[in-house]
Structures are given as structure tokens and as C-alpha cells.
Amino acid sequence: MKHTGSASPEAGRLNSRRLMQSYVMALCLIAVFLTFSHTMSMMALDSARYDANVINVSGRQRMLSQRILYLALEEMERPSEGTRRALASSVDEFSSAHEQLSGMARKSTVLIAAYFSRADSESLDSIVQDFLKDATEIAEQELDRAGEMGETMARLSLLGTDQLLAKLETAVAAHETVALKNSQRLKTLENASLIAAGVILLLEALFIFWPALRQTRRAFLSLEAANANKDAAIKRLVEFSEISADLFWETDVEGRILYISGRLLPDLSFEEDPFVGEYYNAILGFGPREQNIMRQMLATQRPYEGILANFSDHKGRRYKISLSGRPHHDAEGRLTGYIGVGDDVTQEVAEQEKIRSLAERDALTGLFNRHAFNHRLKRQMSISMASGNSTCLLALDLDGFKAINDTHGHDAGDELLKQVASRLQGKLGQRGWAARLGGDEFMVVCKSSLNDGDLKILAIELNEALAEPHKIGSQSLSIGVSIGIAVAPRDARTMDELVKCADIALYEAKWGGRSGHRMYDAKMTVDSDRQKELEAGLRKTLQEDGLEVVFQPIINLETRTLSGFEALARWEDAELGVIPPAQFVGIAEAGGFMPMLGHQILQKACRAAANWPSSPSHPNPHVSVNIAAAEIVEPGFTKRVTSILAETGLEATRLELEITNSLMLDQSAEAINTLQELKDLGIQLSIDDFGTGQTSLSQLRLLPLSRIKIDRTFISEMTHDQNSMKIIRGMIGLSRDLNLSILAEGVETERQAALLIAAGCKEAQGHYFSKALAEADVRRMLQQYIATESRTQLVS
Q1: 219 and 11 Cβ atoms separated by less than 8 Å
Q2: How many CA atoms lie within 13 A of 280 on its CB side?
Q3: Are 270 and 4 in contact (CB under 8 A)?
Q4: How far is CA 473 from CA 134, 408, 413, 424, 440, in A?
Q5: 530 to each of 486, 503, 575, 585, how far by Cα in Å?
Q6: What confidence tens digit (pLDDT) does each residue in 735-778 have?
Q7: Angle, vertex CA 268, rays to CA 264 and CA 273, nearest 5
Q8: In the predicted model, what is the mean pLDDT of residues 129-135?
Q9: Residue in 341, 241, 337 with CA at minimum distance from that of residue 284
Q10: Is the dihedral of CA 641, 642, 645, 646 positive or negative?
Q11: Integer Cα distance of 552 and 565 in angstroms
Q12: Contact predicate 598/628, CB 8 Å
């Protein structure tokens, strides 16, 4: 911000003196430069003049030597008084030129350089003498050659001597004229250099002093204008000289802005300042903690520092400011307001937020990680319990995620987790926040204003949102979620206890059929301990291959003959007792060891069926085995089935695999290809419990099925519920249209069997026909069957 406040006259005079000192120094530098330039110019002119004189004198001396030669020849041929006088005059001129050339040689830079590099015994005179001696010898050689030439010329024509001398004198005169012109040119060059130096001096003076004079004029005008408010400016300058920051500010006692400036407001003038007169807390945004600190500091009139605030300048640019301030008193000690500074920490705060985000956020989904979840949940529980409110926790676990991850790859699994996280955040909105603890385990923490009804509605909404198909590349994948809900302090008073309660409720939701939710209650803890015992016992039983397989007959309703057997798993533990299949199968699915259980049942069923007695007229019946969806989508499942068939010796055409309804939700190409591979081997495929769960009729045309099994719930109600009977007739008609066989399970009475026959159902199983038999009983039944003449007699 530009400020038009005053400065003292002493400061102005000090600036003026400093400015004049700068001008004087500049003038001195200019004078030194011009003197140096002039000296170098003169030295260059002297050197040029010296070279010209040397050329002139040496030329004149050479011409005189030629003239003496011809005069001497003239005297030898025709002696006369005039010739002798001319010869004597020429010799004197030659001697004078020789002396002049010797004087110039003493000033020659070449001879001076030779003098400084001489030996100690040499002097300048000796060097000059040597130079002249060498020059004389060269001149004598020149004269000898010239004499020989002249003598020859004289012999040829003595009559032309006068003319030759005349021409020689004319040449000497012309040479002297040229030398004179050269001297005049050198003089002109010297004058021109002086004029050029003067012009350069004038231009440099104008170039340097004109802006300086204008700047001086502006400076004095500014100082004169600043004197209008000099006392306030001097006082503020003294106080601000102790600190340096991006923002300077001053308020009155009531907190109104009197002055604000700094690097963050470079283009704001005092006259147009929109902040002056505003209260400080209207232009600075404080958080709750910072607001409390500011109130305490102002109430006690204490200085403060490092208070973080949000600041927006007059152009809407946002900054994070670290404020520091102190009370301001007048001369009598009365509080007049506060003065202070603000440091721009926008970049530092952004970097800290980035580091904190990396430390608190899950790298894959962007949700809070386990560390941030623990910290935030503990803090929220403390605040809620102190205020008498509650903290609601939802534990979420994706159903069948491992199968998708194994079948479609980790990249598809990661993309699915990202989409799940995005849907969680979008559905939660302002009702809470989500975290990913690892794998497919998520947590949702809700606000205390939600009651049990709201939490159940939220759980249903989350389940529905996540159940929508997820577009992963070119595939569409569906997945469910199980949710456990716990509320503090009703269910727990510590964070660890609350998480444990939510996990127990989640386990109950998974065991109860998945894709649902459960609210925690106290009895679940007992049930959870029981479930943990069962899980440990089942794991041990599987490791010891301790599961038993029994077989329930499948009857042809039209002929009342034996069609095959369904293999069923049974678990009886010495300590835990007999555990129903529905219970331990749920435990196996929740514990993730369903593939191990299915492998053992399939292996035992195939081994038993391969050893059943048979005869040519009574071939062996087929055996049906339940296979979970998690097994189908595991890589290499077809190879494992083929290996079991080869190991046990059972024909593929005698094996039927019953697929659970949950596989109907998986439309992946991998699952369909696996089923097609099994059917190509000759294995029959059927859907178990058809009509329940989330069966999709449109998917019947996608899977390579052979049979549909009507669930026992419809059979048990068909005698007294017309709607159930209508549904059964519809299923039978659907199977007939799709060219699929149909089987009813759970037949308990003769009336049920009669109604099924009337509706067109071909096969059935249930306690009405036979209970599940041990392997030994099956062998005895088949031996008896072979011994009879008719299958009907056996069933009767």
C-alpha cells in the first residue's frame, strides 16, 4: 500500500546531501575519463607525428645522398666552382639530416625498449651509436650501389647530368611538399579529436545530469508533500522499523482499522483503502481456538503472536496470515489501540496440509486411514460424551471382494475400492465421514443427531448404493456389503470397545446372509464368542480333513425310481456338538476358507460315487455337489475339478455341480467361461435355491445350465398358499421353455409330491422319500436296488 505520510526536513536535507555527493563523484569520474581519453589521443597524435617526421627526414636524407652522388660525378667530369659549392651545401644538409635523425632515434620507442632490456654495461648513447652505425653501413651500401649505377649512367651520357640533377631537385621539393601536407593533416586530426572530446563531454553531461535534475525535483516535491503529516509518519516509521512483514496494521481501541499496508497490498493507496474504518474481525477470519485467544489477549491488553487468520485483499485474493500485535499507548500511557504485523504463511500452511493429508489419508481411496480414524474417533467420542451426546459407528465389509480381486486382478480390485469410497462419501454427505482401514474394510462415523432408525435407513442407503453395478473397464461388476452398527456410550465407552461392538454386529450381518446390516446388542457378544469358537473348530476340522459327507436320494416322480444323490456336508465335534450346515457354511464364508471346505466335500463325494456298485442293466446314478460362487471364480477351478475326477476315477457325466444363487450376481466373462469349460467336460450344472435371494431371470440365458432346483420355502407353503403354487407352476413352465430339467427340494408329504407331479415337476428330494444316508447305507441301498427287478419296488 502506498502511504502519503510525512518525513522530517532533516531526512530531506540528508537525502539532498547524499544526492549532491553522488553528483560530485560522478563529475570526478567523468573528468578522469575525459583526461585519460585526451591523454591517449595526444599520445596517438604524437606517435603519428613522430612517424611522419622520421619518414620525412629519412626520405630527405636519401634524396640528399643521391644528390651528392651526382654532384660528385659532375665535379669529376666538369669541375667548377658552382658544382663544388652545391656539393658542399648538400653535404652540410646531409649532416644536419643525419643529426636530426639521431635525435629522433633517441626518442624512438623501439630504442627505449632496447635500452631497458640492455646489459648493465650499455648506455643509451652506445645503443644509439650502434643504431646509427648500422644505419650508416646500410646507407654506404646504398651509396655504393648508387655510385656504381651513377658511374655507369655518367659513362653513358655525361650530357644528361644537369637535367638529372634538375629532376632530382624537383623530386626532393615534391617530397618536402608531401611531408608538409602530412603535417597539416596531422594538425587537422588533432583539432578534430579535441572537438570530438568536447562534444562527448557535453553529451555525457546532458545524459547524466538531466534525469538527475528531474529526480531531484521530484524528490523535493515529495518531501514537501510529506511534511503535511510528518509527526504520525515518523512515529509509525519508528514503530514499524522494529518489525518487517507482509502486512502492517493499526487499530483503535474498539478494533477499527486505522491503517493497513504491506507487500500483500502493493497497489492500494490510502485514499481508496476499503479496509480503513472496518473492524478487524470483519476482514480477518479466525477459527474458534484463535478467536478465543484473541479475546483473552485484547481483554488483558497483552501482546500476542502467531495467531492464524484468513485474509482476503481488495481484489479477492485469499491468504493465510500469521498475526502478531501489541498494545499501542500515547505519551501519557493511555491505550490508543493495537499495532502489529501479518506474515503470509499461505504456502507453509498448504505444505503442512499436504503433509498432514499424506499422513492421514489412504493413498488409494483418499479416505482417512487407520491412524487418522483412531485419532478422530477418539476425539469425537470425548467431545460427544462430555456434551452428553452419542457417537455412531458403522463397520462395513465388502461381500465377495476377494473373489473379484482374484478373478479380475488387483488393478480391477483397486478401481472397485476407489468407486466404493466415492459412493460412500457421496451418500454420507454431511451425516458423517468415512475411513478405510485396509483391504475391503471400511468404517463410517456419524453425527450424534442420528437415532437408531436413521442409522438403519443410512445402512440401507449405503447397501443399495454399493449394490449398483460398478463399471470396471469393459466389465460391469456387482458387489454387496455387510454392515455392523454400534453406538457409544450405549454399547461401549471407549474407542476400542466401540470398534469391537461394531465388528461383532458386522459378523452377525455376514453370518445372517450377507448384504445386510445388524444393530449391536449385548447378547451378540456371547454369540460372537460362540462364533469364534466355531470358526476355530471348523478351521481345525478342515485341516484334519474331519468333515463327513452324507447323501440324500433324488427320486424320479413319474416312475418313483432313483435318479441320483446330493452330497451334503456334516460336522460333528466332540466339544462343540453337531453344527448345522447353514451355520458352519456361513462361518466358512465369513472366515474365507470356503474353497477349502468345498474342495474336501467334492473330493469325498467323487471318491464315494466312483466306488458305488453297479451292473450293466443298472448303471450308477449321478452325484450332485454344492459349489460356492467364491470357488467358481477362483483361478484354476476347472483344473482342480479335472484333477479330482482323474484322481477318483469318476466319469464327468456322473457329476453335477449345484451353484449357489450368489453366483448369479457375477456377470464376469471369467465366471461364464469357467462354467462353460465345466459343461464342455460333460459335467451337469444346476442352480440351487432358485427363486430366493437376488435371482436374475435374464441371467438364465447367459449361464450354461442343465437344471433348476426349486427352493424348499415354496414347497413348504404350496399346500396352503396359492401364490406359492403359482410361482412353482411358473418356474416349471420357465424351465420347460428353456429346455432345462427341474427338481423340487424339501418334499415332506405325499400331497406335496402329488401337487408337484400334477404341475409337471419331474424330480424331487426330501424326507418324504429318504433322509440323508451315510456312504455305507448308500452302498447297501444300491446293492439292494441291483438285486430287485424294479426300481419302483425299492422306492415303495
Answers
A1: no
A2: 27
A3: yes
A4: 103, 11, 11, 21, 20
A5: 20, 15, 12, 15
A6: 898 899 999 999 999 999 999 999 999 999 999 999 999 999 99
A7: 110
A8: 55
A9: 341
A10: negative
A11: 5
A12: yes
Q: Taking the model in full, what pTM does it have?
A: 0.47
Task: With beta carbons less than 8 A apart as the criterion, state whether 400 and 388 touch.
Answer: no
3-state secondary structure of 312: strand
* Amino acid letter, residue 223: L
Q: Over the stretch 573-616, which tens digit does the pLDDT of each residue have? A: 888 888 888 778 878 877 778 888 999 999 999 999 999 987 76
Q: Which helix (H) or strand (E) holds 482?
A: strand 480-488
Q: C-alpha grid cell for residue 288?
A: 474458534
Pairing label, strands 335-344, 318-329:
antiparallel
Phi, psi of 476 (to 5 degrees): -120, 115
pLDDT number for residue 534: 81
Q: In whole angstroms, give the CA distance from residue 367 to residue 434.
A: 6
Give the DSSP H/E element, type plus range, for residue 743.
strand 741-745
Residue type, 356: R
Residue type at position 70: Y
Residue 17 Cα distances to 28, 216, 278, angstroms: 16, 11, 42
Give the DSSP letter of residue 430: G
Give pLDDT tens digits for 219-272. 667 666 666 555 565 555 545 544 455 777 788 888 788 877 666 665 554 445
C-alpha atoms less than 13 angstroms from C-alpha of 227 in its C-beta half-sphere = 11
Structure-block grid coordinates of residue 89: 651545401
CA distance 472 to 405: 12
CA 250, chain centre distance (Å): 41
Q: Which pLDDT value is given to residue 750?
A: 92
Q: Letter for the amino acid at 521?
A: D
| 286: Cβ contacts below 8 Å, ≥ 6 apart | 294, 307, 308, 309, 310
